[in-house]
Amino acid sequence: MGDDATGSGPREADGRVPDPARLADIAAIESLAVAYAHAVDDRDWSRWEALFLPDAHIDYISAGGIEGTPAELAAWMPDAMSSFRWCLHSMFTHEIDFTGDDTATGRVHVFNRNGVEWEGTPELVDVGAVYHDRYERVGDHWRFAERVEKTKYIEGGRFADMIRDAAPPLP
C-alpha cells in the first residue's frame, strides 16, 4: 500500500461485497483499531501492548517519537505521553486489503486531539496522521504485525511547535 495511494486507479476490492466470514474479519480489524485508540487515551499500556504481536514493528518517528517493538514502546509511552493532560484518538476511513487467509494490510486516518498545559497556558494540540498497518490473525483475534504512523500535520500552540521541531519535516 503506497503512502498516499493516489492516482493508482481502481482496485479490485473497491465496492466488492465480501463474504460473511470476511465481513467478520473486517469488523475485527476495525475493532482492533478502535481498541488501540481507547488503550492510548486510557493510558492502558498493558492493553495497548497486547494488541500487537510480540515481535511487531511500531514506528512513530514522523510524529517525533521512536520505533521499536511493542515492549519497547510500552515502556516509552508513559513518559512520552506524560505532558498530555488528556487525549482523544478518532479513527476514520479504514481501508483493509487481505493478503492471505490470516494476513492483511491497511491504512486508517487518525485525528488526535490532545490537551496540554505548557508554560502555564492550556493548549490544544491536534495531530492528523495515517497509520499504515499489517495485521495477522492469531487464533480468533487479529493483531498488529506493524504500525507505521505517517503524520500529516501537528497544529496548536507553542507545545505543538516544539513537537514539530523534534519531528522530521512533514509532507
Low-confidence stretches: none
Strand order of the largest sheet: 2-1-6-5-4-3
Rg computed from alpha carbons, rounded to a whole number of angstroms: 17 Å
Counting copies of identical and different chains, the oligomeric state is single chain
Following the backbone from N to C, one meets helices and strands in this order, namely HHEEHEEEEH
Total count of strands: 6
Structural class: alpha+beta
Shape: globular
Give the overall pLDDT as a whole number.
92
Note the beta-strand portion.
Answer: over 45%
Number of helices: 4
Helix content: 25-40%
Largest sheet: 6 strands, mixed
- Our measurement of the CA-to-CA distance between the termini, rounded to an integer number of angstroms, reads 18 Å
Description:
The protein is of the alpha+beta class and 171 residues long. 29% of the residues lie in helices and 45% in strands. It has four helices and six strands. It has helices at residues 20-42, 45-50, 70-80, 158-166, and strands spanning 52-59, 67-68, 84-100, 103-118, 121-138, 141-156. Strands 2-1-6-5-4-3 form a six-stranded mixed beta sheet. A hairpin with a 2-residue loop joins strand 4 (103-118) and strand 5. The radius of gyration is 17 Å and the shape is globular. It starts with 19 loop residues before the first helix and ends in a 5-residue tail after the last helix. The mean pLDDT is 92.
